Amino acid sequence: NAGVTQTPKFRVLKTGQSMTLLCAQDMNHEYMYWYRQDPGMGLRLIHYSVGEGTTAKGEVPDGYNVSRLKKQNFLLGLESAAPSQTSVYFCASRGTPGQPQHFGDGTRLSIL
Amino acid sequence: AQSVTQLGSHVSVSEGALVLLRCNYSSSVPPYLFWYVQYPNQGLQLLLKYTSAATLVKGINGFEAEFKKSETSFHLTKPSAHMSDAAEYFCAVSGGSNDYKLSFGAGTTVTVRA
């Protein structure tokens, strides 16, 4: 079982460049999430999805966009990268209520 | 809205000593509570969860946590620390089965001294 797979694992961007982070899950989960992790701040929710074709804003959505065209995939886009978006990004998915979220291994993104 | 406070950003213990990580939560509804562990350069792995069944919850790797409603706490313990327990630990809360979001604490880094 692959679980939650994030692509790429590392990336360095220049300010103003754009990129898309891909998250894929093979557990048939309805709910998917994108978080960013910064030292001393825990995980903060960027965007989430409660099913195919739906997206919603989390705590820190500015500067990011998402899409959920297929149930198994959840894409996170940075249209114009800024140094403040240097972080580790985690994708997670969840099945039925009460079940825990399952996390990918993260994408380490540096913006110069 | 739900929130979590983890007391102590760093905890250092000797190998074989008790590990105690503190978590207090606030929730307007009966909460679901989780502890996750993160090893260096890895994602978060579930240690244990509380979802309104037994108040003492046993997890993986010898960890357990006790839900105390009167104290709004969900502290994590392990009787005897092992070197492999060195990691960062996160407490998280959701507002029961109708809340599909998790709120995370800031995390506690555990170091284990030989």
Task: Provide structural commentary.
- The complex is a heterodimer of chains A (112) and B (114).
- With 112 residues, chain A is mainly β.
- Helices cover 0% and strands 50% of the residues of chain A.
- Chain A has no helices and eleven strands.
- Chain A has strands at 4-7, 10-13, 19-25, 31-37, 43-49, 56-57, 64-67, 73-78, 87-94, 102-103, 107-111.
- In chain A, strands 2, 4, 5, 6, 9, 10 and 11 form a seven-stranded mixed β-sheet that branches. Chain A has a four-stranded antiparallel β-sheet with strand order 1-3-8-7, with no helix packed on it.
- Chain A starts with a strand and ends with a strand.
- The model of chain A has no long low-confidence stretch (mean pLDDT 94).
- Chain B is an all-beta fold and 114 residues long.
- In chain B, 0% of the residues lie in helices and 54% in strands.
- Chain B contains no helices and eleven strands.
- Chain B has strands spanning 3-7, 10-14, 19-26, 32-38, 44-50, 56-58, 64-68, 73-78, 87-94, 103-104, 108-113.
- In chain B, the strands form two sheets. In chain B, strands 2, 4, 5, 9, 10 and 11 form a six-stranded mixed β-sheet that branches.
- In chain B, strand 9 (87-94) and strand 10 (103-104) form a beta hairpin.
- The radius of gyration of chain B is 13 Å and the shape is globular.
- Chain A binds chain B through residues 4, 31, 33, 40-45, 48, 50, 58, 90, 92, 94, 97-98, 100-106, and chain B through 9, 32, 34, 36, 41-46, 49, 51, 90, 96-98, 100-102, 104-107.
